Structures are given as C-alpha cells and as structure tokens.
Amino acid sequence: MFVKKTKSVYQKSMYIDKQSLIIEKYKNANKWFWSALLRYPFHYLIGFLLLIVSTYLTVNTTALIGTALDYLHEEGFSTNFNKTITLMLIFVLFSWIAQSLSVYVWAIASFRIQRDMRQEFYEVIQQHSMAFFDINDSGIILSMGMNEINSIRLAFNPALRMLLSSVVGIIISIFFLWRADFYIGISISIAFIIYFVIAWIYAGKVGPIRKKLATDLSELSSLSQEMFKGIDTVRSFDNEEKEIAKFEHVSYRYAEDMKKEGYLSAFYWPALITVVFTAGAFAYGSWMVVNNYFTIGTLITILALLMSLNRQNFMIPARLIMLQGGIQNAKRLWAKISFQDPLIEPSDPLTGNWDKGIEFRNVNFAYPGTSKYSLRDVSFKIPVGARVALIGGPGSGKSTILKLLLRLYDPNEGAIFVNGTPLNQMHTKYIRQHVTLVEQEIFLFSDTIRANISFSKPDATDEEIRIAAERAQIAQFIESLPQKYDTVIGERGVTLSGGQRQRIAIARALLSNPKLLLLDDSTSAVDIKTELRLRYAMEELMKGRTSVVVTQRLTTLVEADMIILMKKGKVVDIGTHEELLSRCEEYQFMCKHLPINNGLEPSVAESVGGGR
Amino acid sequence: MGHGTRGPGRALGLEKHKRARSTKVLLASLWKYLKNYIWSIFFAASLIILYSLFSLVTPLILKTGIDKVTEEDASMKILMPVIVSFFVLVILGWIINSISTIILTKINSKMLHEVRTDLYRKLSYSDMSYIKNEQSGNITARVTSDTGELATGIQISTSIVAQLLLIIGSFVILLVTNWVIALISIAAVPIAFGISSILSYFGRKIVLRVRRAFGYVSGKMAEGLSGIAVAKSFNREEELATELRELNQQHYNYSKQFGFLMMFVMPSISALSYALFTLIIYMSGWLNKTTNVISLGDIYLSINLSQQFLFPIVMLAMSFPQLESAFGAMDRIIDIFDAKPAISDAPDAKSLQEEDDSVHFKNVSFAYKEGNYVLKNINFSAKPGELIAVVGHTGAGKTTLFSYLLPRFYDVTEGEIYIGNQNIKEVTQSSLRQAIGLVTQEPFLFSGTVYENIIYGKPDATEEEVRSICERINADEFIEALQHGYNTKIVEGGKRLSSGQKQIITIARTMLANPRILVLDEATSRLDAYTESLVQAAQMELFKGRTTFVIAHRLSTIKDADRIIVLDHGRLVEVGTHEELMEKKGIYQDLYTTYYAYQGLEKVDIDIEELEPEIVEKPIKPKKKPAQFKLDSKKKKP
C-alpha cells in the first residue's frame, strides 16, 4: 500500500554538478534537514494524522476511567458502566491499529530519507576535487556518511515521531483536564510549557557532552589502533610507557565526561516538576471532591491522565537530544557538502586537440590550504608523441606536474595549454577521457581482476581485457589462478605482489587508451624477473602516445626524447640524456648516484653512463 | 537513571558469543574491581531499594486518599496528612534517585577507566605473537567497546534489581488488595513476554541482516573514498555511485522489515496495557455486583499497579540479552588478562654494558609454533663495528633473526644470543632496546607532526640535531616543501606522503636515536634509486663503527658490507665477502646473478619466455575480517 518507486533527486547522467543542484535546492543545513519531511510528505502526513487519532483514542480511554468508575460508584454494574467499558475496548482496538500504521509509515519514510540523504552526500562528496580529499580524513568522511546520516534518521524516527506523539498527547490531555476543571487545565498547561523549556535547555547541555564522549572514544580507539599497528616501532624505541600515558590521559578525560553526563541526568529537573504538579493536582482535586465540586471519577481521571503523562514523557529529553544531535550532524554534513572547491568546472567547456603539443606556461602552484609553492615558474613544451622523463629528488615537484596534467588541481598562476586551449577551460571529465595516470602507489578495488582491469572501460569485451593483460605481461599469471579473471583480489581474496599490482594497473591504463599517459615510476623493482616484466609492460603502454614519466630508470632516461630535471619546484634544465650529461652538473651528480654506477662491474657502468 | 538510548542491535544482544567461563568465574574477576567500591555500591543499592519501595508506596497513598475522599465524613483535615506524605514522598524519591545515580555514575566511570587502562597496559606488554595474530581493530574493540559494554552491564544490573523489586512488590500488593484482579493481571504477563520474545527472535535476525547490509554500504563507501583518485582519473564516479545506490537500496529493504517488526511490537505492548486496565475495571464492576467488596481506591490502585508492572517486564525482557552481552565482553576481556604476557626481565637483570658491541648467535633455533622451526641452529659472530649484509630468499628467516630475536621481541626457542659477554636474556629489555636501532620494512608513522615522529626515539633532541640529520639524508628538502614543514601533521598514517618519504622519516628517527647496534630491514626499499643512494651514503658515514646488520635488497648495500651471510630455509648456509662467496658458486652466486646483478641495467639478455611463472604471494585467506567490509554476492560478468 505504501510501496512507491524509489524517488531519488538524481537520475544518472554524465555531467551533472550535484553540489550546485543540492545547494540550489536546499539552500542551507536547516532546510536540508527539515526537507526530509517534504521528500515524502504523503507518508509523514498520514503518519501524523494516524498519530493524532491514536493518541486521541488512548487519552480518551484513560479519561473514561473516571466515567466508568463514576457509573460504578453511583449505579453499580449498570448498562452505562458496561457501555463505557465496551467503548474503552473499542478505543483501545482502534488506537492499536492507528498507532501501528502510524509507526510503520513513519519508519518507512525515515528509512527512505536515510537512504536518499546518504546517496546524496556520497555523490556530492565524490565530485569534490582532490583539494577536498587532501584536507579531509577519509575515515571521518566515511563515518559521517554512515553514522551521522544514521543519526539524522534517528532524529526523525523515533525522536521526532515520539516527540510529536508526546506533544499531541499533552495537548489532548490538557484539553480533557480543561474540560474537567479550568484551574487544573491552566496550571498543567503552564507546567508543561515550563517542562518543555527546561527539557530543551537540558538536552542542549547533555548533547555536547555526548558529542565529547563520542570524540573521546574515537580518540581512544585511534590511539589503540596506532599502538598495536606500530607495536614493533613502539617496542624498539622502548616507548610502551609513553604510549600508555597517552592512552591513560584520554581515558581519564572520558571518565570525567561520563561523570559530568551522569550528574546532569541525576538532577533532571523536569521530572521533579511533573511529580510536584501531580501532587498539587491531587491536593486540589481532593479538596474539590470534598466540597462536592468534583465527582470522585473526575479526580481519578485527572490522576490517571497525569500519571500516564508522566509515564509517557520521561523519554522526552532523550528524544530532544536525538533531535538536536540530528540537526547538529546535518550541519556538519552540510559543511562538507557545500565545500568551496578551488577547482571550478568551466561553465562553457572547450575541447582541445590532443594531437598537438602540450605546454606549461609560467605555472605556479601551491596545494590548496598551503602557502608553500610546490611549483615555481614552470614552463616547458611537450611535442606530440614525445617521451618525457621527469627526474628530481623527493619534494622536487615531479608528481605535482602529473597531477596538474590530469587536472586534479588548477595552477595558481600561469596555465597549461593543450594546443593553445587552457586546461582549466576544459571539463575534468573530458580531460580524463584522454589522460591516464598510473600512480606509484597502486590502488586496486577489492573486486575481481576483470573488474579491476576493465575499470577504465566498463564495456570492454573479454577479448579486450585479455589483450590488455597480455600486453601488460600479467596474462600468464592471471591464467595460472584457479578462477583466472574472476579471481577476487584484496582482503577477501588473493594478495598480489607490488609488481603484479603495478602490471594490473598498466593493463587498466592500456584499456583506457589515452592520448596522454602519465606514469609515476619512482621505485624500481627488486628482482630481475619483476623488473623485466615491468619494463616490457611499460614499453607497451608508452608505445604510440605522448607520455610523461617520473622515473629513475636509466633506460627510460636514455631513451627519453626530453628530460625535465626538477629541484625544489623549479625546472633546472631540459634536454636529452646526452645534452644534460654534458652540461648539467646536477644531472651528472644524479646519474652518478643511480645504482648502475654503484655497481660492481665498472665495464657495464661505462657502457651505459658514459657510453656515447 | 540515565536517559540514554541504544540501538536496536544492542538491546537485542546480537553478539552471541560462546562464553569460555562460567558466570561465577566472571563475577569473581569483576570482584577485583568492584571490591574497592563495595561500600558505595551497598549505599547506592540501598537507595535504589528505598526508591523502589517509594514507587510502591505512592500508589498506596493515592488509594488511601481516594478512599478517604469517598467517605461520608471526608474533610481536608483528614486528607491533609495523606497529601503531605504524598508530597514528601515524591520529592524524597526524586532526591534519592538523583543521589544513587550520582554514586553509580562515579563508580562506573572510575571502574571503566581502571579496567580500560589495566587492559591497555596488559596489552602493551603482552606477547608479540598475540598482538601480531590479532588485527589491531580487534584489539581496539576489546579496549573500547567491550569495556564500554561491561560498564553498561553494570549499570543495567542495578536497574534490573530495581525492576524486579517493582514487579514483585506490585504483584504482592495486588494480591493483598484483590486476588482475582491479581490473577487477571498475571494473565497479561505471558502475553507481554511473548511479544518481547517475538521482538528478540525476529528482531535478532532482521537486525543482523540490516547490519550486514549496512556493512556493505559502509565497505563500498570506504572503498570509493580511498580509491577516489582512481575513480576520478578514469571517470568512474557515476558507476561507483550506482553500485552504492544498489547496496543502499538493499539496506533500505532490510530496514523496512525492521520497521514492520517495530510496528507490531511497541503499539501492541501499549495496547495490551490499556486493555488490561479496562479489563480490571470491568472485573471490579462485576465483582462489586456479586460481593461488593472493592473500593474505588482499590480499583485505582489496581490500575496503577498493573501499569507499574507491565512495563518493567518488557524492560526486563530486553535487559537480559544486554546483560548477557556484557558477560560476553567480560569474558573476552579476561581472555586478554589471561593471555601470555610478554617476555619479562629476569629478576636480576642488569643494564647492557656499553664496552663491547659484538653480537654472537650460539646455536639459535626458533619456532613461532611448536616444532615448526623457522630458524635452525644459527651460529655466527659479528665483531664490534662490523657491517654485515644479510641475503636470502623471502621466508629465509632474515627478519625473524635480526628484527625480532635480537631486540628480544621473542625469545629464542633454543640457543643463546650474546651482546658482548652478556646473554640478552640477562639484561633489561629497556637497555637492550635502547642499544639497538631497528628500521622496519613497513614504515610506520604515528599521528602527530613530522617533527614529533622524528624525535620519537629521543624526545630531548634539539631542533638543530633534527635538521642536521634530515639534511644529511636528503629529507630536509621534501619536509620543508610540506604544508607546514616539520610541523605538518601526519594524517591517516601519512596518506599524503609517498612510502619513500615515510621511510626516510623512519630512518631519520632511528638515526637521531643514535643506537649502538643497528638493524636495517630493507630499510631503503621504498626509496627511489637516487634518494636511496644518497641515504645510504649518509648512513655509511653516520653509522661508521657501529655493529650493523643490513637485510639487503640491493647490490649497493652488499658492496659496502664487511661480510655477507646467506640464510636459506632458516639455516645459515654461507658466510664471507662477496669475492669469497662468488668463488664458492653456491646459493649466493645464484642469488647474485638473478636478483642483484642486473639492477638498474639497461639491457638484460633474458627472454621473457624463460622467466619462471609467478606464484601468488599469499594463497586465498580464510575469512578473518569482520563481515561488514565484505560483499557476499559478487556479480559475475557473463
């Protein structure tokens, strides 16, 4: 009956900027949070109406206690008494049905909100540029996407539902009390207004402490994770006591915060208010009965209503804390959603001609949030089809050049041109269709080998995948696995060696068939077999396209059409191996320190290093 | 009491866990902590009992009031004592409840802190193989969530006492008031229990399913976030989002089942309680017709009491699984307290003397598991200041011998290790580890700044010392280029640093600590060739004259060594200089020609077809990770 097709704000499409879509639609965190009610208005409306009905019926049942007892008192086991009892049972039955349905509809809507908001959050976040991921811990983002979205759902269900049910219950009860006696009605109304104000303040105080407890706990857990992951290091420096002291410090803070929370909940004032008012109502009611203004039934009704209000409302502060927590979390999530990305997609994207050259013109670049320049006044031209080798020490800016070419970042000053078109006038999606980066640290998904290779081309045929694997020198290995291309890798499957991972990444890159290949090949393999396979694979990958390779591999340097030597973010020199070797001191120094010249066989070293 | 809320999973006691110890044993261990607070606990417990009594007496007072009001000669004068005592009782009740909550919170937080730190201390000093075999996440769960669960259990057990008192007390009073009504109320108990058990039976299953689905969503999202750069570079964000959407939808589908269950349970309990008091009123009326004995006050009392014991029953039914899971947590905690402690110092352990840095292995054999020797009968001596290169295939025992046995992370199974003339079993571990510097294969950085990481082994180092070390190994340049230079925070174990950069920092750390004996376990394997050669040059200079063991992975290291030792399948097979070993034409020569000789060479005359087929580094592992980061159903492409 309540089944409805999944309603998601987004439909699949290529170039939708989800961030601006969301921001335009919801404007701010509060609206985003409360928009939940408007996403499934039908459910919430029905749920709310049913809730009113069921609450009205249950309050009425309680109110009828007095009526029934009055009949019993005055008429004994009469028809009126029996009628009242029957009425009460009917009310109970219908309120049961209404309440059940209300709970269900409300739960459905809230689970949908949870699903939708989670999807929304993820889709926006993953469109943020790398600037976002550089400054945000992915563990925290994950926990926001999972746990904090959960807490938003909890704010709607059960928190909001139960709060509404309490409020409706109180209003209807007050209405009944009012009908019984004006003074009781007005004083209980005032009592509940005070009650809510204090409860809200109370929740506001407890909320932050809860938050602090959560932070303390996650700090404890990361301390412990770190200690046991790095146990070798801790022990080898004889630092166990130091680590224990760190932990003890945070654990103590946790205990203190826990105590604070306990003290707050111990002196929970709203509970005192309601009991005092019940006592007052009892005194006043008795006086009214003694003076014959009330029947005894009215007194009992008043007492029963108050008792049942007390019983049902002791959870109000907990619900308020949940609601406030949900709003707080929505704010935190919204801050991530509305991240101001330094990398802006062009509104009117251009396309470039990749068959012409690429140029860096006076590029200055500092990583977002940094004042330190990683690249200073970098200029060079890459002719089409050229093999470019980048060389330099750690921190020299080689890898940064690769990242800029993929437009993971934009230069702060200067520009990168593809046949005269600036890179930042092109859409990142477009650029990445033509440029592929093979990073030094290979990331593979815990999925099948097939899925990992075809990650770059989802519609690749088996044949294409096989050819890519063959060219990457990994096919033979894959064929030797029992499940071949369907072998799952990673935590749940087989562990691959560094060289094997690298070649799978190469196969992946081959399949994407880029115009421009970016390759970070800083570490060289250890043993000859791995080395050799890798070299063949890379050769295949570079064949017939422009490539920029960060490398220390002498072969690559010798064969490069052009070597760019970097130091501290600046270009030191550009030229071929021979040119640099003859004129550049830095390059000579570097070559001297490449392993080949440390080798034991000078004859070989000569043939490579100085052989011209 | 606390106004906390807990997820459905907790309340249902999801983590069914076969306990190894009886409740008695567990309580006995808990006693160790409880006994310090025994008087406070007694005091709090008596307050709780008092509070429960108050909750029973208040309806009685109301009943008396109602009865008095209905009497012919009712006047405020007669009613006054009743009203006043009601007033006093509710306020006193509130105060008593507050005080007991404070006492219990205090005890609970103190105990939690004690258990946690004791546990952490115990783990910090427990056997290396215990820690290595457990995943750090599992250990962390012991320290954080299991201790937390234990604390919750203690809190719950006090409320269970209060609730039991309420239930029994209410029933006794009901029975005294009117036994017929008491019997009607009793009839509601099995129904309430039935509903609660439906909740825990189906709830358990559904919640497990929901959790698993949640784990899949979480796993997918985690992977999407850590692989974001790859997704971006291949334009695959949409597909990843679609995959997430499917899992998300599945999670929703299971959650819906949970919603369905909730729809059944909570409203039913509340309807039951309304139906119950309606029936009580009806029965009272019926009884009145025949015998006319029940006063209005009694009826009111019955209604009130019947309400008072229905909800505690539901609460109780839900508390027991929680209590059980607290016992489970306690059980796992004791597992750790009972676990094998790490090696402890001999009672008469001395400091390691500084005169003689020679290292001697005498008939050293070692097995992680009994009978399964990874090192057999190693005999070898290194002179003070000697540079020893260690070579051998993966799994030959290199790391075990030098990185684990020498710093005494594990004790040798047979034989002895001497430094100078002292058996390392007879010196303090602290002095031993201060003397030995270890750079491990996997660079490990702590959270904190780069600077803090470098001074980890020598907290009192001056800034100049740090900088000069870093300059010498060429680390200064890239550290300065980081966002805040030396004060850059390491996040997520250094995700913004390359593993080479991480490794340089760990090398700087060890160099700064200035150890007398050095173990370099493929310490520069992740550096690029150029940096490596600079680092090695600096190392040679810095560590000149120290006894050094280098587990070698590159030619350049072997070249500088005074002697080379070759390990093969746990045995020391060859010792000597490069030339000597090459002449022997044994394992070393073979290793040299396949592994080391061609490094960095331009041309290799081996045809790719001649290469031996590769093997999987580790075979398919049994499932060990928590289920939530796995996907069970894997789509197979046609």
Automatic annotation (TrEMBL), chain A:
Q: What is its main location?
A: membrane
Q: What residue ranges are annotated as transmembrane? A: 42-65, 85-109, 159-178, 184-203, 267-287, 293-309
The keyword rRNA processing is assigned to this record = no
Q: Report the locations given in the UniProt record.
A: Cell membrane
InterPro entries annotated for this entry? AAA+_ATPase, ABC1_TM_dom, ABC1_TM_sf, ABC_transporter-like_ATP-bd, ABC_transporter-like_CS, P-loop_NTPase, Type_1_exporter
**One Pfam entry name:** ABC_membrane
Give the GO molecular function terms: ABC-type oligopeptide transporter activity; ATP binding; ATP hydrolysis activity
Classify the protein's membrane topology as the record does: Multi-pass membrane protein
**Sorted UniProt keywords:** ATP-binding, Cell membrane, Membrane, Nucleotide-binding, Transmembrane, Transmembrane helix, Transport
Q: Which residues form the ABC transporter domain?
A: 358-593
Record's Gene3D superfamilies? ABC transporter type 1, transmembrane domain, P-loop containing nucleotide triphosphate hydrolases
Tell me the domain of life. Archaea
Per the database record, which ranges form the ABC transmembrane type-1 domain? 45-325
Name under which the protein is recorded: ABC transporter ATP-binding protein/permease
Which species expresses this protein natively? Candidatus Heimdallarchaeum aukensis
Automatic annotation (TrEMBL), chain B:
* Major localization listed first in the record, in broad terms: membrane
Alphabetically sorted, this entry's keywords are: ATP-binding, Membrane, Nucleotide-binding, Transmembrane, Transmembrane helix, Transport
| Residue stretches making up the ABC transporter domain | 359-594
Could you cite one Gene Ontology molecular function of this protein?
ABC-type oligopeptide transporter activity
**What membrane topology does the annotation report for this chain?**
Multi-pass membrane protein
Checking Pfam families in the record gives:
ABC_membrane, ABC_tran
| Coiled coil (UniProt feature) | none
What parts of the sequence cross the membrane? 37-62, 82-104, 150-173, 179-202, 258-287
Q: Which residues form the ABC transmembrane type-1 domain?
A: 42-325
Top-level taxon of the source organism: Archaea
GO cellular component, alphabetical, reads:
membrane
| Subcellular localization, as worded in the UniProt entry | Membrane
The answer to keyword Transit peptide applying to this record is no
Determine if Nucleotide-binding is one of this entry's keywords: yes
- What is the official name of this protein in its record? ABC transporter ATP-binding protein/permease
